Protein 1
Amino acid sequence: EIVMTQSPATLSVSPGERATLSCRASQSVSSNLAWYQQKPGQAPRLLIYGASTRATGIPARFSGSGSGTEFTLTISSLQSEDFAVYYCQQYNNWPNSFGQGTKLEIK
Amino acid sequence: EVQLVESGGGLVKPGGSLRLSCAASGFTFSSYSMNWVRQAPGKGLEWVSSISSSSSYIYYADSVKGRFTISRDNAKNSLYLQMNSLRAEDTAVYYCARGGYIYDILTGYYLEAGYFDYWGQGTLVTVSS
């Protein structure tokens, strides 16, 4: 099973600043990597798939990069609605696997 | 508008059974793989099971293999999860999620992929005596 490790566990950033979240796979997942956002009491929402393709309706301030084992989600200028928990997920191999999440909080 | 509505959750005793349902609308259900993902209270996301559009391919997490059965009825636009021999560690919100597609540049076809592009609001399953 591929283990996904996200860092940091918690990230404190001020509104308007840039946030960079990391995700590492225990073995190569090519570009088969997705990012999700989850707010309290809500279902997750797909942000990025294919490591760098924004999902429908996702603002351009969200961008994804990386391939193989190292991936990054960047939020260029944080808005109040962006403070949430973010998960990465690999779908290159069965079983699918998620990272443990990064909580993005207001500084 | 894509909608996924889960139902069937509730309180069940250890060793008991429960059947979850997911009603889909707003898209051609028979063209998409479907999935169950769960989230224990205060914890992260855990993939549970996936079924391809035609039910030809089915996958389970090791944690539920042999106890849970995923199925779908394309005529009824519905996805199911039969859960048997439930344990306390199965307590979680269970989400129904639609599978995404990727474009294969070699073949020119769109292929079912393992990411989840739409999610329901979830149904809570509590396993406790």
Protein 2
Amino acid sequence: SQKIEQNSEALNIQEGKTATLTCNYTNYSPAYLQWYRQDPGRGPVFLLLIRENEKEKRKERLKVTFDTTLKQSLFHITASQPADSATYLCADNNNDMRFGAGTRLTVKP
Amino acid sequence: GAVVSQHPSWVICKSGTSVKIECRSLDFQATTMFWYRQFPKQSLMLMATSNEGSKATYEQGVEKDKFLINHASLTLSTLTVTSAHPEDSSFYICSAPGQVGTEAFFGQGTRLTVV
């Protein structure tokens, strides 16, 4: 079956370090992958979208990569701050959008 | 960007009663709306897809008679949880897809507690 997965449930890092989150997909080839941020009790907020023919996309301290060989997208936050602490979700862009389980990032001061 | 307004943000109801959740697209027309349920520390699980002017499409395992979806106009989709039970307590979120190749727009979510 088609799956989109985030294998790390939680990630703890020190302020100033780079956080790297992983999203893998199996048994299909999404045309796009998206990353969202979700704070407790709130709906997801869109961060970045990357197409399968794009290897990398950046937005301020955020960077997303898309590796169709590894069937993987990496999401990086550089110079992380405690305010970056949240759950980060990857999603595909099919008609019925599917989400990974999310990775809860905690940035410690 | 486009805005999806979801109401109410939280609701507490008694077992056996029904609760309606509304999602409105404020500055665009949404022919499709996705409804998700999210349990604590879990990801969003797609429940159903509502389409303006036609019947909703439900995911496997989701009871369509219990979770009634209506998409009567291009700016409003509603989810009614009928005969609610404590196990229906969850966080419900709607989203409207953008154009192909763009992001989806999410409502603020509704925290439903059934007592």
